[in-house]
Amino acid sequence: MKAVVLGGTKGMGRALARCIAERGDEICLLGRDEAELEKQARDLEVRGAGGPVAIESCDLRDPASFGPALDRAHAALEGFDTVIVTAGVMGGDQPSLEVDDEAVEDLLRVNFSNTIQFCEEARRRLLAAGGGNLCVFSSVAGDRARKPVILYGATKAGLSYYLEGLDHKFRSRGLRVTTVKPGFVKTGMTAGLSPPPFAGEPRPVAERVLRAIDRGRPVVYAPSIWRFIMLVIRMLPRAVMRRIGF
Amino acid sequence: MSRIMGWGRYPSVEADERFPEDLEAGTADAVLSRGLGRSYGDASLPSSEGQTVSNSAFADRVLGFDPESGVLRAEAGFTLFDLNRIFPPQGWATPVSPGTQFVTLGGMVASDVHGKNHHVKGCFGEHVRALRMRVADGRILEVSETSEPDLFRATLGGMGLTGHILEVEVQLEEIPSPWIWGESEQVRDLDELLSTLRVSSAEWPFTMSWVDSMKRGGRMGRGIVSRGRWAEAHEAPVEPPRPKRAPSVPFDLPGWLLGSWSIALFNTFWFHKHGRKTKRGIVHPWDFTYPLDAIGSWNRIYGRRGFAQYQCVLPVEGDPSTVRRFFEVMTKSGGASFLTVVKDCGAEGKGMLSFPRPGISIALDLPMHGDRTQAVTDALNEIVIAAGGRIYLTKDALTRLEDFRRMEPRLDAWNAVRRKWDPQGAIRSAMSVRLFGDES
């Protein structure tokens, strides 16, 4: 595997990049903080990455950086067959977003339109090379609208639909799209929130995601129990959803 | 807020536990740093409810490794578990390992851990080249034998009370293979136990023993002595050992399950299971070094009330009478230990407050029974004080301040260094309130 990872310095992206490195695959990290990228690259090299880990500057808030970053990654790895996007923002909790238009705009732009623009750039390059894997982190929050995550959930719902569409249209041309729907995973991003039941650890979740990429699975819930939890939540009547707080 | 506790699950404190990926920023307003919470008592707990504690678990990157010299530098949350997966197949291993690999480098420094090879390699701190620390006034310092050496030595075994450990640089040990050549044999009494340990330590780098601590009289001290060394390349399997998956205890077992009768039964079974014959051969390094890691969350077998660990070192070169008295007092005062480990320690290291000193180290697990367990601890501490020994702070939950002062003549010197770097005692823990006289 030759993988390009956007968001590989933190949280789930870090855990997933480590799993890829430990089996000797080649990696290029995309991100905006060069010092962090450097540190992460050294870590992945010691953990067994195949060859030096390349780093390239790319900011999910700046769509103009997407194409050039992927081109530089292509040059550094002499081609790539896998693009992984774990970057995204929480944007704050729902009540604070409801009174902060700027934060809402940032959340919608980063998690939805910019992520999709990045995926479009990646899709074109993967298809031009004859296919490959595009793995993007969405969320279980996009499966059903819920009071605490209305805006965040909306961005992830939109993203999941887009990714499903890519899978429908381009699988026959060799593009294998994997939508990751993590439940609550204990990472730096969720630190400070009290973990609900069935909260996952980054490493087992990352291992599960990598298996899904290898097998070309279109959707993966991680930890797996979230598939059943969300199945139940999706079936709850609207009257119930109006009453409950989660 | 979450309820946090040590591995013994007693005591517990409601705390604001944070998990920064950037320790430099994340420790700024924390009263204490902690790692995976594997110290047994209150060493990693804040001094009062609601305080902020920085957990290093997500700051776990390798920052550099030189495959020529074996020098490793990593963030404080880098775990021994990861170290053991990454480096032994490349010919390098930690020079010192405690009895679990679910610890962080930062925790290994703060406890100045020792292992089965203490008589040869000393504590972990002997191999630490440098630390990056945030001290109480907010400065970030590189600390070593040549840069702020007083702080360096006070931090090795300083229970995290001298500053937040951000990075650790350690010299790894070159190994001939990642496998262990191990031997084990039954010993029938205390005299045989101590003499076998002594003879084994003269020839083997790794030695320890499990003891059936429930036996009194002539069979007191019966147990199993284990010894080992890194296997030579020609002895070892070609493939490196595969990481093992461990089943976990899924829930708290009922508290009554581990009583004197069940512990005596288990000890008898374990002793006879080994058989009289000496066993020898190639052993998976995890089986040899971390037998308890084979069962995840094993602390749940003690139920919700938890347990207290007690570990002391008795300076008794070859003289079994103090060790005998120790076990007598333990069983007479109602203590029943399921996992009793005896090991001979080597010389003192450079850590100003580190645990080991020449003598016999005894580690016990005591199911928590409130006052009764406190009374056992007090009685055992009396023996330790009379013998000129000391306790291992990483294990302790119940020792009283006055007893600790009586057994720790090094305390004033260590306190002086701590106060120099933290005059207000801004960095403190539940343990420092209990044993060092800090205000909560």
Helices of chain B, by number, come to: 13
- Radius of gyration of chain A, rounded? 17 Å
- Uncertain parts of chain B: none
Corresponding CATH architecture of the domain at 180-398 in chain B = 2-Layer Sandwich
Described by the principal axes of the CA atoms, the overall outline of chain A is globular
CATH class group of the domain at 180-398 in chain B? Alpha Beta
Quaternary structure annotation = heterodimer
H and E string of chain A: EHEHEHEHHEHEHEHH
And the CATH topology of chain A?
Rossmann fold
Detail the poorly predicted runs of chain A: none
Walk me through the structure.
The complex is a heterodimer of chains A (246) and B (440). Chain A has 246 residues and is of the alpha/beta class. Chain A has a single domain (2-243), classed as NAD(P)-binding Rossmann-like Domain (Rossmann fold, 3-Layer(aba) Sandwich), CATH 3.40.50. Chain A is built from nine helices and seven strands; from the N terminus they run E-H-E-H-E-H-E-H-H-E-H-E-H-E-H-H. Chain A has helices spanning 11-22, 34-46, 66-77, 94-97, 101-128, 150-170, 202-215, 225-235, 238-243; strands spanning 2-6, 26-31, 54-57, 82-85, 132-137, 175-182, 219-222. A seven-stranded parallel sheet of chain A has the order 3-2-1-4-5-6-7, sandwiched between helices. In chain A, helix 1 (11-22) runs parallel beside helix 2 (34-46), helix 1 (11-22) crosses helix 7 and helix 5 runs parallel beside helix 6. Chain B is α+β, with helices and mostly antiparallel strands and 440 residues long. Chain B has a domain at 180-398: Alpha-Beta Plaits. Chain B is built from 13 helices and 19 strands. Chain B has helices spanning 23-26, 80-86, 105-110, 118-121, 149-155, 190-203, 260-274, 285-289, 320-332, 371-387, 401-407, 411-421, 430-436; strands at residues 2-5, 12-18, 32-34, 52-55, 62-66, 71-75, 92-93, 128-134, 140-144, 164-171, 173-174, 180-187, 206-211, 223-230, 279-283, 307-314, 341-345, 359-367, 390-391. In chain B, the strands form four sheets. Chain B has an eight-stranded antiparallel sheet, sandwiched between helices. Chain B has a five-stranded antiparallel sheet with strand order 5-6-10-8-9. Chain B has a four-stranded mixed sheet with strand order 1-2-4-3, with no helix packed on it. In chain B, a hairpin with a 6-residue loop joins strand 1 (2-5) and strand 2. The longest helix of chain B is centred in the last third of the chain and has 17 residues, at 371-387. The mean pLDDT of chain B is 94. Classes of the chains: A alpha/beta (246), B alpha+beta (440). The A-B interface holds A 10-11, 14, 39-40, 42-43, 46-48, 186-188, 191-192, 194 and B 1-2, 18-21, 58, 61-65, 86.
